[in-house]
């Protein structure tokens, strides 16, 4: 190693690629260090820029300056700790963004997004993310992964994995997260679905709805380029910057002003609809999906909501208290699923679908591969609403398209 580089958050709107320390098989928290013999060191094959990263970079969280970003990681094992039994040097693996111990009650019940042992401050941890345990992120050349036998999803064939790496790189977060949103909302054969947001997670969710058998997938966003990308794989679209009445737009498409299921892929930086699209209204999506989801329907909420937002529109929003019309959802007997996606519930099945040519999510999400050093430009373009999923290639291992 000795040539590690990582993407650091400097201040709102600014990231920088810096030389950083090589990872070690150690765990450190608040100045205390101990050995991590259950971990491995990965040479990163691909690592992605996520919308959740963008919330931090915009200064909309309490992320400290200098944090190394990145929780969507695919890598080659180059060093194994003494206690690692089933993962070997040379294996190429997908890393779930949830860091999990595999030993606590939640992990044993497959709720790996809220592991009880990997973050002393709260349930759940992630690489390179605010309030998630202080783990060093993976938008870098090398990274350490703990509890490797439990966390890593090994690809069965190295050459086949590299050939499909644009698709497989999405297994660490975005594809399982989109699938989780659709699955928990109840999407199934013949469902009509509304997906709020046509960013990368929204596009992954819309594609997952199709995998699950939805008859009609309607995607709403305010950026026409993103909506065009959703339309490219068969989705209906609604431009919410132009149309303030979502129910009326759904009625034009379906003949009724409601859907069976809805998924919020926007989160707390939501804006109003129509004439209010220039203003941030953080409860807009949650209230609108309750309005247009049928009675007894389901709502998946993979969109991020935080407990600390320095840029919140009011004092309530700054601590995650939003004006949600919960009485409407209660009256309609909606069910809601929130929180991090437990990636390990879905990643192996989605991997098999990709390896056997049943799923091609990179095309749906419009993956664009760039170098690690180009990450600041990727963040800049993403913040402007580019209809792309930026994948960083730190070592030049991703084959040409």
What is the SS-derived class? alpha/beta
Q: How many angstroms does the end-to-end distance come to?
A: 28 Å
Q: Mean of residue pLDDT?
A: 95
Unreliable segments (pLDDT under 50, ≥5 consecutive)?
Answer: none
Rg estimate, integer Å? 20 Å
The amount of beta strand, in percent, is: 15-25%
- Sheet of most strands: 7 strands, mixed
Task: Give the number of DSSP strands.
Answer: 17
Shape: globular
Q: Can you count the helices?
A: 14
Helix percent band: 25-40%
Structure description:
By secondary structure, the chain is an alpha/beta fold. The protein has 14 helices and 17 strands. The strands form four sheets. Strands 5, 6, 7, 8, 9, 16 and 17 form a seven-stranded mixed beta sheet that branches. Strands 12-11-10-13-14-15 form a six-stranded parallel beta sheet, with helices on both faces. Helix 14 links the parallel strand 16 and strand 17. The longest helix has 12 residues.
Short structural description:
Helices cover 26% and strands 23% of the residues. It is an alpha/beta fold and 401 residues long. The strands form four sheets. Strands 5, 6, 7, 8, 9, 16 and 17 form a seven-stranded mixed sheet that branches.
